[in-house]
Design goal:
This protein has helices spanning 14-19, 50-61, 73-84, 108-118, 123-135, 137-142, 145-153, 155-163, 190-203, 217-220, 222-241, and strands at 2-3, 66-71, 89-95, 179-184, 206-210. The chain has one domain (2-240): Rossmann fold (3-Layer(aba) Sandwich). It is globular. It has a five-stranded parallel β-sheet with strand order 1-2-3-4-5, with helices on both faces. With 248 residues, it is α/β, with parallel strands linked by helices. Helix 2 crosses helix 3 (73-84), helix 5 (123-135) packs across helix 7 (145-153) and helix 5 packs across helix 8.
Length: 248
């Protein structure tokens, strides 16, 4: 199971899925994104924030122990789900998940930026401004109008994803599944590069570092993400052979 970040949608895993044709993969659009856009809007906010997304993931697993790999906020949501239903996680892989409320992660600046996004009065404007910041004005202007409208509408879900990160939302000590943290070597700041390493240290997770990859490696450096998934599958295989290794 692959879980996308914020704002994002499952189709952006296409290059990864193509290279993992030998695995039985499931991808889906989280509430408020992509094809699940209409499922997310309740009085202008997505119901329950990460808690609801974690429950959705557990429901989608449908009682079947699985390997779950999440990108950015999708990884954080998967971590929360793993504390709620660890029996469903043969192994968990995450790529640069935001741990904004924890003071050891990246400091107060990241928290204040997240709070600013969460406080936008107009979520559709947030959807446009955030995507412009990622794509650049030229690429944004070249998008089809239908795509622009989707990205603006996803601002509702994105604002809700930011709003639920004002304070810690999971107990890291309760994360007891085989766990792999992935990250790249390309980032906007040294603090960004160091954050996944800190998470791995605090949770006892294995660390996978992909050279030349950045936060959006699933779209622009899919080989890194393919390796992340395969390493997480291998971690599950090792853990099944040695059940004691699950008790980290």
């Amino acid at each position: 199971m692959l879980v996308h970040g914020a704002p994002d949608r499952s189709k952006n895993f296409a290059h990864v899925v193509h290279q993992l044709h030998d695995l039985a993969l499931t991808v889906y659009d989280r509430r408020g994104y992509g094809k699940s856009l209409a499922a997310g809007d309740l009085d202008g906010m997505v119901r329950g924030g990460f808690e609801t997304h974690a429950d959705d993931l557990i429901e989608l697993l449908d009682g079947t122990p699985s390997v779950v790999v999440g990108q950015s906020a999708g990884g954080t949501i998967a971590m929360l789900a793993a504390t709620k239903a660890p029996e469903l996680f043969e192994a968990l892989g995450v790529w640069e998940p935001p741990m904004v409320p924890w003071d050891w992660w990246m400091g107060d600046e990241a928290l204040q930026r997240t709070i600013a996004w969460a406080s936008y009065a107009d979520p559709h404007q947030l959807g446009e401004e955030f995507n412009r910041s990622i794509l650049g004005d030229d690429r944004w202007e070249r998008l089809r109008e239908r795509t622009k409208e989707l990205l603006r509408a996803e601002g509702v879900a994105f604002r809700a994803d930011m709003a639920c990160q004002r304070e810690p939302f999971l107990e890291l000590d309760h994360l007891k599944v085989p766990f792999l943290v992935g990250c790249g070597t390309v980032a906007p700041s040294p603090e960004f590069l160091d954050a996944p390493r800190r998470l791995a240290e605090r949770t006892g997770a294995e660390l996978f570092v992909a050279d030349h990859a950045d936060h959006f490696a699933h779209t622009n450096h899919p080989e890194a993400w393919v390796e992340l998934v395969r390493r997480t599958v291998a971690l599950a295989d090792r853990s099944s052979e040695n059940p004691m290794s699950r008790d980290r």
